[in-house]
Write a structure and sequence with these properties.
Layout lengths: L6 H5 L4 H10 L1 E5 L5 H10 L4 E6 L16 H6 L3 H12 L4 E6 L7 H5 L4 E4 L4 H14 L3 E7 L2 E7 L18 H5 L9 H4 L23 H20 L8 E5 L4 E5 L27 E4 L5 E5 L6 H10 L3 E4 L3 E5 L4 E5 L3 E5 L4 H13 L4
Parallel strand pairs: 1-2, 1-4, 2-3, 4-5
Antiparallel strand pairs: 5-6, 6-7, 7-8, 9-10, 10-14, 11-12, 12-13, 13-14
Keywords: Nucleotidyltransferase, Transferase
Organism: Ignatzschineria rhizosphaerae
Protein name: ThiF family adenylyltransferase
Length: 371
């Protein structure tokens, strides 16, 4: 197999046949399968990473096609969940790997179950609150994770919760050494994401703020570059750990300006995530959430309890309300709005900007839609 499909990987002396075998045994979870995550998945699938777990809450839309690789017009027409569309395309690229999918809104009550058992997590998300949740869960479960974000022509990446490098001058025979053995050792004394809050412009690279992709946009090349940085670090993690980066990398492609910064001095010994007495605060937040999505005129509502979509569709039939129902969601067409409901309790309300108004529409539909 190495002589054929992965021959060019094996010929690269920093990977070799041992590195290819390490990729085949790797278990990587990708949270967020849009502009960054879809490229992560394609790169790792082509490299033969043995198990990829894809987690995303959204479905493919035409506005995604400008920047989110592998997705097609047919995916958007069918409104396929992103993880389902990705799995179908990845199967045509590499049928030998295992691809697991979760159509889920990652929250404090499910994240540990979703990501546990993986060797590494790749960030493909677009909001800071979700990254803070990932940060807490990864430190609690001792899972290394690779942060990446991009907006306009600017992006950054950092490796969080990586093991310390005990032997930087590894012999060639150590290339491809199991990451599980390294994880059992000491952790690298570097800051976590929570330590960096207020010190780096993390909020400005978040869809929760005004400067989001829906208002200022993003170009595909910066997404390709940041995904390339993240996935190359993932390859190093399994095949040549001594080469992994310990600095924050930033790049503005339009101005063509890059920086490489050492952040070790920013580690907070009292940090509730990575400090001496961690409490992982974001893992304890369980509540209904509502937020404007990265797009115009839509609000996402997350309910703690799951929804019985079949029961709701029966009520819609009684009220002669038009809808489409499939294995993934219930798409309801109201007089002035459209709302999509998911099994996990989420709802996306279209045609509304006000969060309170969106919550009222959501409540109406899940309680008594034909009144």
């Amino acid at each position: 197999m190495i002589k054929d499909r992965y021959s060019r990987l094996a010929r690269f002396h920093r990977i070799g046949s041992a590195g290819v075998k390490a990729f085949q045994q790797a278990k990587v979870v990708i949270v967020g399968c849009g502009a960054l995550g879809s490229q992560h998945a394609e790169t790792l699938a082509r490299a033969g990473f043995g198990r990829l777990t894809l987690i995303d809450r959204d479905f493919v839309e035409y506005s995604n096609l400008q920047r989110q690789t592998l997705f097609t017009e047919q995916d958007a027409k069918r409104a396929l969940p992103k993880v389902i569309a990705l799995k179908q395309h990845l199967a045509k690229i590499n049928s030998e790997i295992e691809v697991l999918t979760h159509i889920a809104d990652v929250s404090s009550d499910n994240i540990e179950t979703l990501i546990s058992g993986h060797d590494l997590l790749l960030d493909g998300t677009d909001n800071l609150s979700l990254r803070m949740l990932i940060n807490d869960a990864c430190y609690k479960l001792q899972i290394p994770w690779i942060f990446g974000t991009a907006l306009e022509s600017y992006g950054m990446s950092y490796n969080f919760n990586f093991p310390a490098k005990e032997n930087k001058d590894s012999d060639a025979e150590d290339i491809g050494k199991s990451s599980a053995n390294m994880i059992a050792g000491n952790r690298l004394q570097s800051p976590c994401l929570r330590c960096l809050l207020g010190l780096l412009p993390l909020e400005s690279l978040s869809s929760e703020k005004r400067d989001s992709c829906s208002s200022v946009g993003v170009i595909q090349p910066i997404l390709q570059l940041i995904s390339g940085i993240q996935t190359s670090e993932a390859m190093k993690f399994f095949a040549d750990f001594s080469a992994t980066r310990e600095t924050l990398f930033t790049m503005d492609l339009w101005e063509f300006h890059s920086q490489d910064m050492n952040l070790h001095k920013l580690k907070d010994a009292d940090c509730p995530t990575c400090g001496d007495h961690p409490t992982y605060p974001d893992l304890h937040v369980k509540k209904r959430e509502a937020q404007r999505l990265c797009g115009d005129g839509s609000v996402m509502i997350r309910e703690v309890k799951p929804l019985d979509l079949e029961k709701i569709s029966t009520k819609l039939d009684a009220g002669n309300i038009h809808y489409q129902y499939n294995d993934y969601f219930l798409n309801i067409h109201l007089e002035n709005n459209r709302i999509i409901l998911f099994h996990d309790g989420r709802g996306i309300v279209y045609g509304v900007d006000d969060v309170k108004e969106a919550i009222e529409i959501y409540r109406l539909v899940i309680t008594d839609p034909f009144q």
